[in-house]
Amino acid sequence: MAAIPPDHYLSLSRLDSLLGTSKGVYDTSTLAAHDFDVDNRTGFMPPQAPPSRLPADWEPWEIVLDGAIAEGLQLGDKPGITQVEMNQSELWRARVRELPVLEVSGLIRSETDLRRAHLVLAWTMHFYIHSLPPDVPVLVPAPITIPLFQICTQLQLPPVLTYSDTVLYNWTLKTASEQPTPALDNLLSQTLFTGTNDEQVFYLTSARMELRGVEALELMRSTMDEAFVGDDLAMRRIATFLARMAAVIDDLTALLATVRDGCDPTTFYTAIRPWFRGADSDPAKRSWAFEGLAADAYPAELSGPSAGQSSLIHALDVFLGVDAFSHAAALTGGSGASKTSAFLARMQLYMPRHHRNFLTQLAGNPRPLRALVANGDPALRDAYNAAVQALKRFRDHHIAIVTSYIIQPARRVASAKAVEAEAEGPLKGTGGTELAQFLKAVRDRTAAAVIES
Hints:
InterPro entries: Indolamine_dOase, Trp/Indoleamine_2_3_dOase-like. The chain contains 18 helices and 4 strands.
């Protein structure tokens, strides 16, 4: 098959260049919700449940995704996978290869349909890749590749599963409700790899945090409004807003902890997380190839969905000036700070484009909070520090969660492999070492953002 034209695919370098031009940034002076797809009731999540089905013309995509779920496809590198399971996976992949290459131009009229199409094709692609035996090269077939890359060009998203595909646009209501804001206990994820309650709990934990974070976004807006006034009364109001911000962040920490109530760490690490892997974390070090594209037309480095792609958490960093503080640390030396900032910046490329623009606008605030606090009175400084310390507590707890759900299981797996191979010592580069170092660096740069008296 001939390679498709360059304007029909997206590379991360192209995406990066789009973000760096005036075309990629809205020229607005306020954080207007309609400009940035941020709802005053649901924040970065859509105000209504996303569509659960594409229009009829694209039903073949929905059918193959339904098949993967209904047939319970297994990970290709699952220990003890049976020949029957392997055959079942291959029969499903054959159906994917036999799909027609559907035209996507009709989807472009609807942002919600484009999002749904990205979700369906990205989930299908991950089912396809990760059900392959680990010794089989990865070649994503053209019926998935070509429309996915065309859709990615429209959405300015990479061709891989993202946080928005698993959390922001992957929910519905358990029961119909007339309430303007979805209740935290009335949510249900639409699509799962494993069909387990553990996976459901994992996604819904993040969704509930996004909804609780709506108040934080409103406090940001109110603070910025008062900062423009700038008088003593405005400063007192900002101190009150920051005290409330600390309480909201503590609520986010409490919600994060609820993942332990229904998601088992071993189940998550061995059965759920492997489906998320991107090209940059393929355990067999395979490159991902995309049929219908020239070999140099697609990015080699693709990361799967991650909480690091949550616009809410990035917004807290930017608003409190933790982001700027980290950038300053990187400029004054310290490769660790530089790598941390680079990774967080790369994660923004996986966010919906309107949300990236929101963060850009927030970062461009001409009256940044941190500078305001540095020149303010002790009460304002104390309120700001309380919010920063709450964010640090959030990151402490996040480290504990990641330790339980990724680092410790990874070490157990590495230890077992070392024993099987009669290795002389633990395997290097395993056990989540780099992840632990990264999270601690982010936590430490948050703690260092406290303004001393």
